């Protein structure tokens, strides 16, 4: 059954498409491409230039579903000269910057037709801060029904400064001055003297960074349902996406002979410093942090003591099994839905039932960490890397912070009763064998992206290609072969859930089943119809629903779009419409030369009981964090390994689960394309 929200959204989209049958997908893609192209310069598209000069946003209010209220608010701020100037850094965690970006987002969300949205975008692009503009466009393209099939260009080519080392950006400027096409090598931050450098390929991966930004755009902490609809299981998704980043990072660490991350503590020094080697386009270098810094109060943000108090209030709620709402009533969290409430509380988003009392542990912690270099604003430094989702995972402190939050979530999950045999048993179904086709092997490969949008230029001089290439983890393709016996006597819908976790820690000490399962990396989840008797299911690694493909380069997007526009052909970019998911190249942890041991668990559960929407087995596009209306899987994220395991023998007794051991190899292979 589809949710009413989804139906409303669909009905709304149908009305809109009747009103604006004018803009084809190719036209929409063209508009978004050119609205984001060289965003620090003036507009390049002639039609857009005309809009920016002559459009009056308030002239015809019938084009807005709120009768022009949002646009009136923004125009007034503009006329009163209250908006942040251009050529200045932007941070989402700065309350005023965020408010301005969301004013534009609000305008775009209330545009009834495509043309009005483009006119507003072009008009405000020439008048608003570039960072605020990019944020509003990305958020609106993700959430506006009219932009459903538009592919957003890769963020690392729209704002390359946030993803690229300063040294490389400087070389790009030099190449621009010389007007010579150039390919510049990028390397990861730090030196061999810094153990953290061994895992920099994970935190600094441009695809990982983009995944993190996109997730926070799909499920923003500032979201109000009045923008469009309720975001299903937003708090639980917050827990899960960060849990997966944390456990994947630990698996990469063990692959590289490092201990798992230790959690951050407010009353202990931040052991790992960080020198970002990145700069703002406007605003100088990102601040560095020396090793062993003690947490200090940050003026105008929070005291360390406040963080400790908020932490203990949240842990109290977990111990009591309920959250206290603003009106004093209780929300029971001793159930599957509890994690969703807790996620809203810890982040905190506007969905938090009592932000007054429980604060905003996660968001405040990001700012606290980001400001430790200049906590009292003495040196007028710009925000730290932790204050941008694009750059946060570069800082080892990010994973320390999220390990700390993940442990709070675990405290809650461990307080729930363990699953029983009957909870887990899918009667009449057994997994008889799981085999992998191909070896599980990873390697590094140079990945190239363009720095054209990093450098300043003028329309008079032609562009020369300035690219950088950076090594990125990838793996050889493989498939799972899963044999399932269905003795129910009839067809059965099944959910296949595939997880893996490191078998042992850095010292070779095996994890207990209970600790192992908390470090479970989700590899795939999909639905199949099981015929009576024996079924052999072959599932390709490229089809994993937890991952997405790398988006084509900005240049490729533009070429394909223009070709479709001039040739009237269809623009087929369907594979790239959602960028929410880990890059597919990161599906497997790196492993090591001898083969790193992983426990592989394949769980087949009752699809009819799990499914929140119909016909899941026919839908290949099940995106992991689907925002449209309802999340397809009723089970908690991480099921069946989300709860404390009292006695792992249950998992061996249940016939619909299969536990085996696999090795992931990495032979130091590095593919160059130069």
From TrEMBL:
MF GO annotations: oxidoreductase activity
A Pfam entry, by short name: Hemocyanin_C
N-terminal signal peptide: 1-21
Keywords in alphabetical order: Signal
Top-level taxon of the source organism: Eukaryota
Residue ranges occupied by any Tyrosinase copper-binding domain in the UniProt entry: 395-406
InterPro entries per UniProt: Di-copper_centre_dom_sf, Hemocyanin/hexamerin, Hemocyanin/hexamerin_mid_dom, Hemocyanin_C, Hemocyanin_C_sf, Hemocyanin_N, Hemocyanin_N_sf, Ig_E-set
Similarity annotation: Belongs to the tyrosinase family. Hemocyanin subfamily.
Official protein name in the record: Hemocyanin subunit 1-like protein
Species this protein is from: Macrobrachium rosenbergii (Giant fresh water prawn)
